[in-house]
Amino acid sequence: MSSEVKKDSIDTKAEAKKRYEKLKKIIENILDETDPGDEKANKRKWILWHFLYIIWWESTKATKRVQDQKGPARGLIQMEPKTLWSLIKNYVLGPKPGLVANLAKAAGTTEEEMMKVLKDFKGSKEPQENKWPKSENAQKIEEWLTNIDSFAVKLMRYYFKQFREHRFPPEDQENLSKDPRDDKFKEEHAEGWAKWWKRKFKGKTKEQQEKEKKRQKKNFTNRAKELDKISRKGEDEKKEKKKGLPKHIKKR
Nearest 5°: CA angle at 1, between 32 and 175? Predict the structure, then answer.
C-alpha cells in the first residue's frame, strides 16, 4: 500500500520522468483511500492509468496548471468552475459521509475550514457563470485546485464517482488483469476521456463536432503513447539497477 493521503504536488518544471513518477505516486495514494482492498488492485491499476493519460493530455504533460488563452480551467486536471460547482453541490456536500474530511486532508487543511470554503463556493454566483469567485473563502478553492495536486486528484476521483452509470476501462472485465497501457486499449481510454471528461467539442454541426472529437482523440492517444515510453523506460532502469548492471551497459 502507498502512503497516507496528505497535501502533495509535483514539480511541473522537473524532467518528464520525475513528473510522471511523482504524479503516479499521488494518484496511487488517493486511490488506495477511495478504492481500497486487495480485490480492487486491478481496478485501481486501470483508474491510475486512465487518470495519468487524462492529466498528461489536459495539462500538457503535467507542466501547466492554468488554461491557455486565459481560460477558466485550473489545476493539472484542468477543471472549470462550473463543473466544480456542480460536483460540490450534487456530490461532495451530499449525504455520503467523509467526503469533506478526505478533501481537507488532501488539501492540508481542517475539515471545518474545508466545509466553510465549500459552502461559500456553492453559494457563489460566479461559478454558475463559469467564473471563479473572489470572496475570501470561496477563492481558496481555485488556489487549492491550481496548486495542490493531491486535492485536484481527489476531486477528479469524486467527479467520476458521482455518475452511477460511469464505468472505467476496460469495457471487457476479463481484461482487468492485463496492462492498461497496451495499445489495443488506447481507444477505450480516449473515448472515456472524450465522453466523460471533455464532453463537448467545438463545431457548428454535429458532423464538425465529431470530426473535432476524432482529431483530439488521436492526439490524446499519441500523447498517451509518449507517456507509456517514459514509464517503461523507468521500469527498465529499475530492473537493471536491481541486477546491479550499470545503466550504460545494454542487455544482449
Answer: 65
- Cα-to-chain-centroid distance, residue 20: 12
CB 16 within 8 A of CB 230: yes
- Please state whether the predicted TM-score (pTM) of the whole model is above 0.90: yes
**pLDDT tens-digit map of 21-47:** 999 999 999 999 999 999 999 999 999
As a whole number of angstroms, the distance between CA 90 and CA 150 comes to: 21
Biggest CA pair distance of the chain: 64
Span 132-152, pLDDT tens digits: 999 989 999 999 999 999 999
Q: What is the CA radius of gyration of the chain?
A: 19
Q: Copy the grid coordinates of residue 222.
A: 499519441
**193: which DSSP letter?**
I
